[in-house]
Amino acid sequence: MRFLAACHRRPVDATPIWIMRQAGRYLPEYRAIRDKLSFMEMCRRPDVAAEVTLQPLRHFELDAAIVFADILLPLEGMGIGFHFSPEDGPVIERPVRGAAELTGVRPFDARRDLPHVLETVKLVRRELDERTPVIGFSGAPFTLASYVVEGGHSRTYEHIKRLMYGDPETYGRLMALLADAVVDYLLAQIEAGAHAVQVFDSWAGCLAPFDYERFVLPYARDVVARVKQRGVPVIYFVNGAAGMLSLVGQAGSDVVGVDWRVELDHAWEQLGDVAVQGNLDPVALLGPPQAIEERVADILRRAAGRPGHIFNLGHGVLPSTPPDNVKYLVDAVHRLSAKSASG
């Protein structure tokens, strides 16, 4: 399988591609289901979550499937309630902003708390029958902690930073609990059949490199090291990390995802001997085919045929993306990289 070969930096016949949030709102089949069920109902029903996971593979020649779920799902099992607001997105019902609130947080057990996600992985693995690898995923400890402390989305991240700076002991206890939860969740997905896993540190780019190195990197490194013991590739993606990629690479993942704010070759120079995933601007998929092709060609030129490039967007596909443009992207990546590989 191209994707797994690239994760291990082995030669491939064409650059593999999958897309973050490839199962989602830009597909009419997804919207038809979403009109009938809430987002959480979709996540909690393995038959529905598996169907949504497989929908994009029926449209496009993607090289991997990523399980349909949400990074916040482990929080309920830890006693951290949340809901989705139409206006504000995810809302944490009782934010943790000090030692007192932390007393109500309990250890997470994926088999007890999220059996439906594990069943989804099994269903997708069975349906694909080794034709296409399955990616499991989790939020990273810092990104989960940010939601838990901020209470939802944030522009300033003032509460999580205040906790880091003013009460590092409570911050460390929360991060340790979340690191254990992430490891347990990823290992359970691997046991259920995931061929690879991705750790999303979507909010760590809000930090200065000094704070990332001190308050985030040790926990990311711990998660990656423990999961890698199972022998499956681990992808670590930090959004907004162009200014600290040399630190991100120290987490030790097999693959590092990079966003579109850095040129791929410059990112690879900082990361060293790892596979690299990325890094088309998601908004490029709203443009005409010529614009998509030009940017694909530039990214592939910067990859320079090195083993270990996995094409992806620099963040998730936007809901307004035309499916025909996604198809054009996938076909262009395979066509242009195969031409390059053949000289």
Helical percentage: 40-55%
For the record, the count of structural domains works out to 1
CATH architecture descriptor text: Alpha-Beta Barrel
Q: Helices and strands: which structural class?
A: alpha/beta
What sort of overall outline do the alpha carbons produce when their principal axes are compared? globular
Tally the helices: what do you get? 17
Mind telling me the C-alpha Rg? 19 Å
Task: Quote the CATH topology.
Answer: TIM Barrel
The fraction of residues in strands falls at 5-15%
N- to C-terminal separation? 22 Å
Q: What are the low-pLDDT stretches, counting only 5+ consecutive residues below 50?
A: none
The major pleated sheet works out as: 7 strands, parallel
Give the rounded overall mean pLDDT.
96
In CATH, what is the class? Alpha Beta
Sequence of secondary-structure elements = HHHHEHEEHHHEHHHEHHEHEHEHEH
**Which strand order does the major sheet show?**
1-4-5-6-7-8-9
The count of strands amounts to 9
